Amino acid sequence: MTWFSSWRGTGKISVIFDIGNASVGGALLSVEGDGKPRLLFTHREAIPVGRELDMKRLLPKMKKALGATAAVLQKEGVARLRQQVPGPLVHDIYCILAAPWSISRTKILKIKRAKPFSVTVDLLEEMAANEELLFDKGLGDDPDRVELGHGPLILMEKKVIKTRLNGYEVSDPFDKKATRIELSLFLSATTEMVSKAVEDAVRGAFGHQKVNFNTFNLVAYTALRDAYPRKEDFLFIDVSGEMTDIMLVRHHVILETLSFPFGRNAIIRRLSRAVNSEPEIAASELRVYWEQKTEDQSKNKLRDALTEASGGWLKLFDISIASLSKNDFVPTTVFITADREVSPLFVNAIAERKVGQFSLEGESFKVVPINHETLQNFISAAPGIELDEFLTLESMFLRRVNLLRMSLFHPGVPPLSDVREGKKLFAL
Fold this sequence. Notes:
The protein is α/β, with parallel strands linked by helices and 428 residues long. The chain has a domain at 260-372. Helix content is 38%, strand content 29%. It contains 11 helices and 17 strands. Strands 9-4-1-2-3-15 form a 6-stranded mixed sheet, sandwiched between helices. The chain has a 5-stranded mixed sheet with strand order 12-11-10-13-14, with helices on both faces. A hairpin with a 2-residue loop joins strand 16 and strand 17. Helix 5 (216-227) crosses helix 11 and helix 6 (264-275) crosses helix 7 (279-290). The chain is globular and about 75 Å long.
């Protein structure tokens, strides 16, 4: 938990909940004009690591951590702010869902006609609506759909992230004529059970305000594209508690996402068995290990256990990369987010991997860890707040949302949405 010092702004703040499978983070932030987001208060609750993975118990654990985070943000964060700025404060609430709480896909939609036709809101809406109807049916026995659980899906995001007319990318396709149109459409969903659990936990602290849902994949993609506008092709890897998510971006389009059930907690469990301790103690010993303060005997045990664990993760990583490379060659630039006690393990493992069999671009990956150092220029924080890379990426995303509201679109940056005739077409 971190405090903020005196803050003066419009009196409107946004609330972010970063909902993962190892922890739940929350932040109060101010996003004004086209300036940097400013973190005012943050809190994070860990989801306890069991000795064995039990996905059925993960949802109630997540809901409990989310409820606790929301309570701290309201009782301590908002209450303190109200002493400085009277009146209602919370302007909007965003819940960002990582795996396994959401599922997402990108579809490429095309129309080709002999004669030029006008590109209208209705045309693009119709294309997107048809794909939306096929989204749930098309998943079938997809492993991500199975992992998400039974029950009907609730659509969270339907966003056009790229538009091409006659082969050329355009940020504003409306009122133009073309014979060919190509849309890159990002769709995401969650289940009613997950949605209800999240809303109940948040509203327990913040009442019946509207809760906006987004996926961490799309949020991270948007923030990274803003931070690294010249990187058109990259992999984004998020190693969370129980899962590893991999996103392939080619020409600024999310082409594919996949995941496998091996993350930070699997490493901690193996270390726990190796040193015969509880998972929490093993995680603490791992932090000491990276600081090179471990005694030789314990150091050898930890090193052997880490070598074995990273080998298991790399096998699944190789299978995933091979799957991605079937339809497209894999970029060598890799952005990675991971909890700090395991980040060096995954960064080093990927950087040392020889990937010539997967990529036409080189022999090894160029790994860029997403952390305080890489993100500090894109956000400000009140004194005493330690930057959290996940909440920082999400704050950068909210800045884009604010640009939409303010209609402050920078040259060369396409708007988040275009509103014509009362209809919204989302385009990142």
